[in-house]
Fold this sequence. Notes:
Gyrase A, domain 2; four-stranded antiparallel β-sheet; 65% helix; globular
Amino acid sequence: xxxxxxxxxxxxxxxxxxxxxxxxxxxxxxxxxxxxxxxxxxxxxxxxxxxxxxxxxxxxxxxxxxxxxxxxxxxxxxxxxxxxxxxxxxxxxxxxxxxxxxxxxxxxxxxxxxxxxxxxxxxxxxxxxxxxxxxxxxxxxxxxxxxxxxxxxxxxxxxxxxxxxxxxxxxxxxxxxxxxxxxxxxxxxxxxxxxxxxxxxxxxxxxxxxxxxxxxxxxxxxxxxxxxxxxxxxxxxxxxxxxxxxxxxxxxxxxxxxxxxxxxxxxxxxxxxxxxxxxxxxxxxxxxxxxxxxxxxxxxxxxxxxxxxxxxxxxxxxxxxxxxxxxxxxxxxxxxxxxxxxxxxxxxxxxxxxxxxxxxxxxxxxxxxxxxxxxxxxxxxxxxxxxxxxxxxxxxxxxxxxxxxxxxxxxxxxxxxxxxxxxxxxxxxxxxxxxxxxxxxxxxxxxxxxxxxxxxxxxxxxxxxxxxxxx
Length: 471
């Protein structure tokens, strides 16, 4: 039975120190992301025991990720936000901080390693873009099918415009989100990032050659907006208040825009080209090995919440080539997880609680949402998590092997995986071959994940009852 979002939100807040301890709340496809003023006030064990909570990830820098699953996470986030806004106590300007706040801030700083902070902030920039990437990617795939079949010729130009418009201007959205995340004025970040995609840059010569609209892509937009934020902050502290409204935006856009045109676009374009070239080289020359490594390591990245840091790479590949060749390889991790879960279901036939969890989480797992199975099944059991990774590695190696033979499998958007990725598939060998290779990878992941778990993943567990977290 589905948990009531309001009750679940109340239960989560009670175990993270209450609404007053939450400084921000957001969500991705499956996780409620909380930033806490006092991370030590959270009780992770109590949080994991809440019915409906599938897992908890401590970001180590005051951020917590509560895995709730698709659909429900958006409703719970809305309830959490409303409760925080309603019950957070206001502190008068100049009032002293709560006792021990200095110590708590010191603990937060110690846990906020540069790598963790950078990955979290990158995720905060790109995660809000995922719904549009999914929607536009599906429409692009549908439009491609209609074009290939010669159907509805009067509709395909409209679908093409709808599907392509967001990707054409994604740099602006990246700029807005970057400035917002790093403390600048969002519209100024967007204004500077818009330089990257403005058609008029073709008339600008830098490093002895004309720039190309879109050169540098999302990486250039990210760098441009970061620079704009730094310039804006520098101006705010030096420009007299009476002139701030005129000079600060002007200087920010001028300085950041010029640096973007005469430096950042070229540098980011070089990096973006290297990413595309490197991905192609890797698959052509070491496809099976690359697929083995990527498919095998992706589940640990998902478990730690670090998989969002790959979004800029996926987005760069989609901008350059029209699809990302990495996502189908990474999606094999979910196939290994499904195979492992089915093996657990078959072997532990007397564990009613665990089998119920698997039945409820398996549909989401087939559609590429792996957290319910990770936190509800394989991770609590231990060894099945490793055998699930083995299944993912096998599926990735399968797709990578065909890449070395010349059949590349890509995705026109990011977000879905599993069976939900089929509408987004494309490649260089036609839709039939692309779907066949991807489907073969899924079946390989299922089979190896199942076999490895059935024969090696449950040694010593047998039919012993196991209390899995309620789903």
